[in-house]
Design goal:
The protein is α/β, with parallel strands linked by helices and 401 residues long. It has helices at residues 37-51, 75-85, 98-106, 129-136, 155-159, 170-184, 203-209, 223-229, 241-255, 298-309, 330-341, 352-359, 373-381, 386-389; strands at residues 17-21, 28-29, 32-33, 55-59, 89-91, 112-114, 141-144, 166-168, 190-194, 213-218, 260-262, 267-270, 279-282, 292-296, 313-317, 345-348, 368-369.
């Protein structure tokens, strides 16, 4: 589907400095990047800018620092990006300030610089106008390629975009196109698989997808909110108490729609959330006292895989169980393998689903794997994402901001 925001492809960038908001919120281990998939996802936009002889000033958050925490510096990410690009990436000592401005001024065409962790600045998450102005002063243009942060109205995602000409990066474009197609124009039939812990995080997406899906397959701990509403015993399973009423609302709306909302029919139980715990397969869903439901059972997983295989479009967001623990990984693995093998268009909505694909070595199999968990759900729901709304419309290209 067409994306109506101005693209970096259309920007006149040669000889100019471009502030690029990337999403390099990546895991670090022993001072090195443990998973560089988000870094690699931004490389096409960085390459385009370098090829067109722009100077790229990159900015991202990393973790949730309280002030300046050296262990959350962007330096390891800069080092990994330099390895990928085969070119120097200069690491700035701060996010803004005279020294940063001097480094930016000296940046030549085709060169790359990384600002420090944007959350080292307290004004970042408050969308502080002063911080936004200081960021805007570092560049002539702004490019947002951080879809995973586009649902946040922060200084680096929304504030600065109102101050200098603001364009969508290549990754952001593709994210919006892929997810909007699932929401508005899926090849039928649409099959949706949703897992994770909280009904409340997915209720908006579920209600929107009830309009177009043939089946919505529910797994993960969120299924226990539905079971609790239906009066089914949940034992010691994780139940989002605030989600029980929401689950009832979803069931009511599903009953009035043409979509089928499908709950598990069997479960894998454990005494504790631990890889060494006692494990039991339950032929049914009434969880006894002292047991926790930690995965969908094999019959459910097989039925979900069959539904995915029959679909024209598949959207998957959230694991079916505690897949990080080997005794409770089978349900998520079965769904992940079904998504990987599905003949229809397959889109995976970020978050823990991506971690599951990585765990099972299936990351390259779906048609699109989103870099944004929360952002993907909000876009599917139909919400306006501040980081996207602040960008110029295509019709504004060539005009004045």
């Amino acid at each position: 589907m067409s994306f109506e925001k101005a693209s970096v492809r259309e920007a006149a960038v040669e000889g100019r400095r471009v502030l690029v908001r990337v999403d390099f919120n990546v895991p670090l281990e022993a001072g090195r990047v443990a998973d560089d998939s988000r870094v690699r996802a931004a490389v096409p936009t960085i390459d385009l800018l370098r090829e067109r002889r722009a100077a790229a000033v990159l900015v991202s958050h990393l973790g949730r620092p309280r002030g300046r925490e050296p262990e959350l510096s962007m330096a390891p990410v800069s080092a990994r990006l330099a390895e990928i690009l085969g070119a120097e990436v200069r690491q700035a000592p701060a996010v803004v300030g005279p020294e940063v401005e001097e480094l930016a001024d000296r940046l030549g065409s085709g060169e790359v610089m990384m600002l420090e962790n944007s959350r080292f600045e307290p004004g970042e998450t408050r969308n502080d106008p002063t911080l936004a102005r200081r960021l805007a002063a570092l560049a002539d243009l702004y490019v947002d390629d951080a879809f995973g942060a586009a649902h946040r109205a922060h200084a680096t995602t929304e504030g600065v975009a109102h101050l200098i000409p603001a364009y969508a990066g290549l990754l952001l474009e593709r994210e919006v196109e892929a997810l909007t197609a699932v929401r508005d124009d899926p090849t039928p039939p649409l099959c949706v698989a949703l897992g994770g812990a909280k009904v409340s995080e997915k209720i908006g997406a579920i209600e929107r997808l009830l309009e177009s899906a043939r089946e919505i397959l529910i797994g993960g701990a969120m299924c226990f909110g539905f079971f609790r509403h239906l009066g089914v015993a949940t034992g010691a399973s994780l139940v989002e108490e605030d989600g029980v009423e929401l689950a009832g609302r979803i069931l009511e709306r599903a009953g009035a729609s043409s979509a089928q909302l499908v709950l598990p029919e069997d479960l894998v139980l454990g005494r504790e959330l631990d890889a060494g715990t006692e494990v039991r397969e339950l032929d049914g869903v009434e969880v006894p006292d002292g047991w926790m439901g930690l995965d969908v059972g094999p019959r459910t997983a097989g039925a979900y895989a069959d539904a995915i295989g029959r679909a024209g479009t598949v959207f998957w967001n959230g694991p079916m169980g505690a897949f990080e623990l080997p005794p409770f990984a089978a349900g998520t693995r079965t769904v992940a393998e079904a998504v990987a093998a599905a003949p229809g268009t397959t889109v995976v909505g970020g978050g823990d689903s991506v971690a599951a694909l990585q765990a099972f070595d299936l990351t390259d199999k779906p048609d699109w794997v989103s870099t944004g968990g929360g952002a993907s759900l909000e876009l599917i729901e139909g919400r306006k994402l501040p980081g996207i709304e602040a960008l110029m419309d295509k019709s504004a290209v060539g005009g004045k901001r």
